[in-house]
Amino acid sequence: MSESLWRDERAIEGLPIRLVIALVVGVACLSVMMSTISGIETLQVTEVDVQPHPEVTTPGEREVTVTVVDPEGAPVSGATVVAKSGTATLDSVATAETGAAGNATLSLSPSLGANQQEGTVVFDVKPPASSSYQDSRSNTDLLVVGS
């Protein structure tokens, strides 16, 4: 009897089609699960950016209004804006919180080094704690040009 089982090749005939069916069903199930997960709002995060006003300034004491916006351009209130030295130098780090219109006003005093014609002030955003916002990409910088 063991020799008859050894020569029997019928069991292998249906194996490839069963593997293909299992693969198709598995991919379909994975697709349904991924669309369900991506539809859950609490798992999605939204990147924020800043819009400094003015976008270009000169060295010296200045007030700069920074608007924090989401990708659609809607203002984000309750976010903390941090201004730091980039290639232009600030005396210290400046912070301010955005109001209902998404605006924060910062008093900055950027300066440029010797023989430096332009530089940047860099902004970081700490989104509101109870929101789905994040700030992981670089934001729009303030350009400082020498006179």
Automatic annotation (TrEMBL):
Q: What is this protein called?
A: DUF7382 domain-containing protein
Which UniProt keywords are given for this protein, alphabetically ordered?
A: Membrane, Transmembrane, Transmembrane helix
Please name one Pfam family that this protein belongs to.
Answer: DUF7382
Q: Report the residue ranges that make up the DUF7382 domain in this protein.
A: 43-106
The annotated region (Disordered) lies at: 126-147
What parts of the sequence cross the membrane?
A: 15-34
Entry keyword Transmembrane helix? yes
Compositionally biased tracts (Polar residues): 129-141
